[in-house]
Each structure stands twice: as C-alpha cells, then as structure tokens.
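Sat 14:20. Reprocessing the chain from the morning session after the first attempt stalled halfway. Input below, unchanged.
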Amino acid sequence: MGRRMRQSGVGGGADDRPGQQTDEQVQKRVAAKVAEVESSGESQNGLFDLFGSEIKAAAQVAAPDLALVSSSKDAHTSGKGASRRNPRVAKIMDDKAGHRSRLLTRFRDAGADALPDYEMLEMILFRAIPRGDTKPLAKALMHKFQTFSGVVNATDERLLEVDGIGQRAIDEIRVVRAAALRLMQSTIMQRDVLNTWTAVLNYCKAVQGHDEIERFRILFLDKRNQLIADEVQQSGTVDHTPVYIREVVKRALQLGATALVLVHNHPSGDPSPSRADIDMTKQIIQAAAPLGITIHDHVIVGRNSHFSMKTAKLM
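Finished this time. Tokens:
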C-alpha cells in the first residue's frame, strides 16, 4: 500500500494526509518544483536534493521522459517504468505539452497580433523552462511590470524579485531585448538621420528610455548625415551624468564625424531639460563649431516621451 501511494501522488501513504490530491494540487506541486529548478539552471538531480524522495517518486511518474534519476535504471530504460505512470499525472503533463503546441500553432498561423502580451512572454520562457508551466510566471511578470516593454527593459535585479525567475529566464529576456534594439538600430545605420528622424527618436527611447541611471549617448554622423557610430560616452547616477566636452570633440574627430546628435535620458521619466543640460549643450556647440562639427540636436528621453532642444529652440 505504501509503495502504491508513493507512485500515484506527491505525498506519502494514505495515513499521513487526508484524502487524495486533486489534479490541480498534483499539477502545482510537481510542475512548480520542476519549473523552479529548470529556471534557476540547476541540475535535475538538484530537484531531488531540494525536495526529497517523495517529490522524486512523483516527478518520475509525472515525466519519465525527463530521464530523471531512478531507483531502478533497468525498469526505466526497458519501458517497464511507463507501465507505472499515473494516468492522472500523465494527463496533466500532456495538457501542458498540448498548451505549448496550441500556442505555437496560433502564433505561426495568426501572427503575434493574435497573442496578448503574457502569451508572448510564455513563449519567450519556453526555452528557459522546457517542461514547466510558464503561464503563471508570464502573468506574474506582467502584473509586476505592467507592460511587455516594462518586462523586457527591467533590470536583472528587479526581474529576480519575481518568484520563479532564474538566470536562464533572464538570459532569454535579454536576448529578446538585444535583438529588438539591433533591429531598430539597423533601420537608421547608413541612412540620412534627418530623413529618418522618427526612427531615430524611437530607437533612442527604446535603447535608454528605461535606464535607471543617466547615460550620455552620441550619434556620430558623416557629411551625408548618415550614422557611422552610436556610442555611450558617459554613465552617471539617477539624476546626473558627467559630460566632458573635450572628449566629445576628440571622439568626433577620431571617427571623422562632421555632425552629432546628443542624447541622454532622465530616469524620472520627465524629459524636460535642466539649466545644466542647456548650458552644457551650448558649450559643446561652441567647442565643435571651429572644427567644422555641427550639433543637430540634443534629445532627452524618458520612458514614454522625449524632448528636442532644437524643436524648443534652446540651441
């Protein structure tokens, strides 16, 4: 009796818990443990070190295809282990695989527009958590950061505040952000920046509008106003970043740039310039002009907005 109960549930025998567990309880206790270990990047054996022999027995029954450590290797490899599968637990695991398959099919057939943000996050997490249920984690991320952009742009430290998020999940989110920024940057490289100004502004907001410290970025342009380099010149604190005018001009000469677009962010979200921002811009213009270098604009970005000093006639 004791052996039969260990194979059909997560807990021990019938005498150490009242009644049998429901499908939902088995799902939560098994899938959550597997997902947690997978997301953290730990080995599968670590699952059993963390949660004990009863979880090991239940996980072996729930997902024998994971090649989990078995007390009887011959039974597992010969197919005898499959005969011990609990149909109730197996159905839960099959439903999870079916959900992933249906989600991917809908994405392929109807495109990303057919999926809400949390389902896009689910698919991003598939690789980080190959066999666990990613829907609760995706919804938790959306609840904490409110938007898809908020999740993708969140710092590692803030992402780790969400239960179930490990380094593997963070890596997948980082890849998505890097790919998006690379795509946006490619739309403005080697093109007339002034003729693709909206794309330039969108890129600037995406690349540093969500940063939690100020960064001073320079877009270096050639004589045709094509982007030849995009560099962060300085990083600072939450409300200040040092700018060295000599270094700005020196780097422009090294690259052979004839024009610049200055960019920095305000972590507060308010892109309005300070008096120091305006004065610093004028000093760069004065230093660059004798060398034939034009400052087209100084753009300040927030999370959802921007401020152009040229448009505001502050330069």
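The two ends are 84 Å apart (CA to CA).
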